[in-house]
Design brief:
This protein is α+β, with helices and mostly antiparallel strands and about 375 residues long. It has a single domain, classed as Outer membrane efflux proteins (OEP). The protein has eight helices and six strands. The protein has a four-stranded antiparallel β-sheet with strand order 2-3-5-6, with no helix packed on it. The longest helix is centred in the last third of the chain and has 70 residues. About 5% of the residues have low confidence.
Length: about 375
């Protein structure tokens, strides 16, 4: 009963876990540590923190030499500066931009976690299918060889022999494609994590830990909220720029004997062009409203996607339980029955091969439901920033 043994191995719902398996969490940690995009986001945050120190950006003082009376040269110094609230508002804007960069860093990390976990799942599915096609290929090659011997001895006709050989050829090509796909996805996972030899992947299975937990903040929504805060701070800055600016300096405009008290100068810049300042304020207000609306839209979209993903997850889980409790045991019973009938000569190769296809299709559909469940679970983790 070697044939039966091989098939039973194929339809087992689980595989023995390797002792040194490369887990999804390990893949995520490695990617977060090695991926250049994460490093770039960290540098952007660092740059924004440095930018906070440039909020008080006084213009350089002007040093000039003039001969106001035509009798001698006088050295003068002039320093200009904005209204003091401008610098305070610029500091607030700089801090808000730092918070925005930090929120962007969280978004980048969340995007990378999602990409790595999705790629890991695809590699798991491809590895599962590759193993299935490998065993199936070995099985069908043995069936084709047996059909050739039976045809030579006159036990079966040419149609049955040709059917067995054609099925074996198609299965072999499917095996080659599945192996290539599994290898490609594994290489992509190595590139994504930056680990030359990550080790064996965990076998494909449905992870039901923390199944009902969908708590957490939406990183994409948090980013839009931070962008709205930056825009709001820009309103205060635009209003401050509509206030007078000042300059103070030293220059002897008179004779050499002019008292020190009369050598200083001061000026006030009057914001007479109110239209341009009002336009700047209106721009900042409009950008704040747009950013607030984007945050609300992003929150709504994330909430709807979260609800949809939870529905898909529980739907797939229901199918998985069906396969484990009814579908797979029923396929094993069907396989056992058709094997007995084939060995007793009560069924031909047409029925036999069709039944084998149904058995393999059951196992394939089971893997598809696991993939659907894990995809929805990863999507929920992505939406909630976990």
């Amino acid at each position: 009963m070697r044939l039966a043994l091989k098939i039973v191995i194929i339809i087992l719902p689980g595989m023995i876990r390797a002792q040194e398996a490369f887990t999804p969490d390990a893949a995520v940690r490695a990617a977060l540590q090695n991926h250049p995009g994460i490093k770039a986001a960290a540098f952007e945050v660092q740059a924004k923190k440095y930018a906070e120190k440039t909020a008080i950006n006084l213009p350089n003082p002007e040093v000039n030499v003039e001969s106001p009376t035509g009798l001698f040269y006088a050295v003068g110094v002039l320093q200009s500066f904005e209204f003091p609230t401008v610098y305070a508002r610029q500091k607030q804007v700089a801090k808000a931009e730092t918070a925005l960069a930090q929120a962007g860093q969280l978004v980048n990390e969340n995007e990378l976690r999602y990409a790595v976990r999705t790629l890991y799942l695809e590699a798991q599915v491809a590895a599962f299918q590759s193993r299935q096609w490998m065993v199936r290929d070995s099985l069908y090659q043995a069936i084709a060889a047996a059909a050739v011997r039976q045809f030579a001895s006159g036990e079966i006709d040419f149609l049955q022999k040709n059917l067995a050989e054609n099925e074996a050829g198609k299965v072999h090509q499917e095996r080659l494609g599945a192996e290539q796909l599994a290898l490609t996805l594994y290489e992509q996972l190595k590139t994504q994590t930056g680990i030359p030899e990550p080790g064996a992947l965990l076998p494909l299975h449905a992870d039901t830990t923390g199944l009902g937990d969908a708590s957490g903040a939406f990183p994409a929504v948090l980013y839009e909220q931070r962008a709205a805060q930056v825009a709001e701070k820009q309103i205060g800055l635009a209003k401050s720029r509509a206030l007078p600016n000042f300059s103070i300096g030293y220059m002897n405009q008179g004779e050499r004997e002019t008292p020190i008290d009369y050598r200083f100068r001061a000026s006030v810049g009057l914001p007479l062009w109110a239209g341009q300042y009002r336009a700047g304020i209106n721009v900042a207000k409009a950008e704040t409203q747009a950013a607030t609306a984007r945050a609300a839209a992003q929150n709504q979209a994330a909430a709807l996607q979260l609800q949809r993903s939870r529905t898909e997850m529980f739907t797939a889980l229901s199918s998985i339980r069906y396969y484990e409790q009814e579908g797979l045991p029923r396929s094993r019973a069907l396989l056992s029955a058709v094997l007995r009938m084939r060995e007793a000569g009560q069924t031909d190769y047409v029925i036999f091969m069709k039944t084998l296809d149904e058995v393999f299709a059951m196992q394939r559909d089971y893997a598809v439901q696991i993939q659907a469940f894990e995809t929805a679970r990863i999507q929920i983790s992505y939406l909630t920033g976990r």
